[in-house]
Write a structure and sequence with these properties.
globular, alpha/beta, Rossmann fold, two-stranded antiparallel ribbon, about 250 residues
Amino acid sequence: MQVLIAITVGEVINFESGKAWMPTIYGQFHTYTDAVVRAGGAPFILPLVDDEKVLRTLYEQCDGLLLSGGHDLDMLDDKAGGSSGARLQVKVNTSPRRDKQEIQMLKWAIADDKPVLGICRGMELINVALGGTLHRHIPDDLPTAKNHEQSIHKQDMRHLAHHLTLEADSQLAQILGTTHIAANTLHHQAVAKLGDGLVVTAHAEDGIIEGIELPGKRFIIGVQSHPEALEESAEPLWRSLFTAFVDAA
């Protein structure tokens, strides 16, 4: 039997052919499911549901939880990091329903020691759920930082924008078998104050936190990049992360 990996979804308004009046679509990039399949797992897309009993039933079916990228977190003012601590003025999209559901599932997974992989927004959610904060908008809060939306501006998720330095004793470095790896970059927020119990596992050249993990658990790892878009060909070393995730599950 293959392990089941639940992948969280985003809410998308249907703009096709003027159909914005239709209900939102739940979905995610196929690169997530592709990466899980290549790692030996069986992925399923987890819908947004408001009934906690239904959510618990879905949660119990999965052996591992992949917190995917997408929406900005719709956090309260006291969860904002950076220079002002003010509510973010630059937003792409938010989904309070998604935030609530993913935080609940993460809490269950931590309590049950169920493997969790957080990617981009997913890493940020792990940090915030454990009491950490975010820099709301890197160009405003960290003006000397490099461009962390470079892969977006290149319109290429496989664009290797920078190199990460990994902590040698981290689970992430041991999985990847290296302390330096190339990565794409598609984010405008970043970890500020670290959440309770978390440790930093990777930095970009400008010091931005690019990896976190929760020691003492089998597998609670977050990465700020999008390795699911790289592991097939752009930087195959990243496939080890998905293989280790599936193996832990």
